[in-house]
Amino acid sequence: MSKRPTNNINKVALATGAAKRVGACIARHLHSNGFDLIIHYNHSHSAATELANELNTIRPDSAQIVKADLNLMSEVETLASTAVSLWGRLDLLVNNASSFYPTPVESSTQQQWDELINSNVRAAYFLSSALSKQLKRHQGCIINMIDIHAQRGLPGHPIYSIAKAGLQMMTLSLAKDLAPEVRVNGVSPGAILWPEADLSEEEKQAILDKTLLKRTGSEQDLAEAVYYLSQAEYITGQIIAVDGGKSLYSH
Ligand SMILES: NC(=O)c1ccc[n+]([C@@H]2O[C@H](COP(=O)([O-])OP(=O)(O)OC[C@H]3O[C@@H](n4cnc5c(N)ncnc54)[C@H](OP(=O)(O)O)[C@@H]3O)[C@@H](O)[C@H]2O)c1
Q1: Which terminal CB of the chain, N or C, has fewer other CB atoms within 10 Å?
Q2: From the CB of 161, is ligand 1 less than 6 Å away?
């Protein structure tokens, strides 16, 4: 991380959890459309470094990495202040970082509650709060990566589902409270990338059977929705499902 406290002329986006997978695709797509990128990561230092090198090779001085454990409020606060100091501006916050694992209701723990709630919604809220002044200055926007299971809980994952439902309501609430200067929207993925923990082939097929388009989506589908919302100047308080029709499935 190097400081370049100039008045950057490019728009600057902070994407959380952006070293790999969906977040990295969002970062690449925003970058290819002219944003400079602050790539937040926690454990994935080498992937974040490689991604920043890739983007800086395409356009020098256009990507920085910042580490923070979003479970820790002190690190959330430092991430917000560092993000603003790097280029002296911020136009877009993408709350993408998330932890995800099952928490059977009979055996779930407070530690799981804290991890899932903190990474999926508490950090997103306090980052948005801390960055709202800067986003207002640039008529910026916030885009939250939610989940179609914010509407109908994912069996076996009650805490994750509660966290994403909170993120959904946060999208609607902050759209009201930060208007008219800051737009706040969400993208709700369905089956895009299988979780890093293994799912059996039968489990994957059962999910695809309930998806109208009968296939998974791609990270690029999500990145394009994020970029669209970043440019859609008359849209706020909306959540786009990018789910191949899964949320319409009747059972
Ligand atoms: N993949 C899908 O099909 C799908 C479906 C529904 C919803 N979504 C949502 O779309 C977004 C992206 O999905 P994804 O599958 O790419 O996510 P992911 O790989 O599960 O997680 C993204 C990143 O979040 C970061 N993260 C987790 N806990 C953190 C913590 N305590 N502090 C800081 N960073 C933390 C991790 O960063 P490090 O690796 O650096 O630690 C991780 O690489 C997520 O919000 C997810 O819930 C995805």
Answers
A1: C
A2: no
- Closest CA relative to residue 127, chosen from 234, 57, 240, 38: 38
In this predicted structure, the answer to whether residue 7 has a pLDDT above a threshold of 70 is no
Percent of the chain with pLDDT over 70: 96
pLDDT band with cut points at 50, 70 and 90 for residue 24: very high
Residue 70 CA: nearest ligand 1 atom is: 32
CA-based end-to-end distance of the chain: 48
Neighbours of 160 (CB within 10 A): 26
> Is position 227 annotated as part of the catalytic site?
no
- Residue 6 pLDDT > 80, yes or no? no
Site to probe by mutation for ligand 1, drawn from 98, 113, 115, 157 as the one with most ligand atoms within 8 Å of Cβ, is 98
Mean local confidence (pLDDT), 156-180: 98
Q: From the candidates 101, 160, 228, 249, give the one annotated as an active-site residue.
A: 160
Question: Could you say which architecture CATH assigns to the domain 12-243?
Answer: 3-Layer(aba) Sandwich (3.40)
Confidence check: pLDDT of 251 > 80: no
- Cis link prior to 158 (omega < 30° from 0)? no
**216 CA: nearest ligand 1 atom:** 3
Is residue 65 within 6 Å of ligand 1 at its C-beta?
Answer: no
Q: Could you read off the pLDDT of 41-83 as tens digits, one per residue?
A: 999 999 999 999 999 999 999 999 999 999 999 999 999 999 9
Q: Domain coordinates of the chain in residue numbers?
A: 12-243
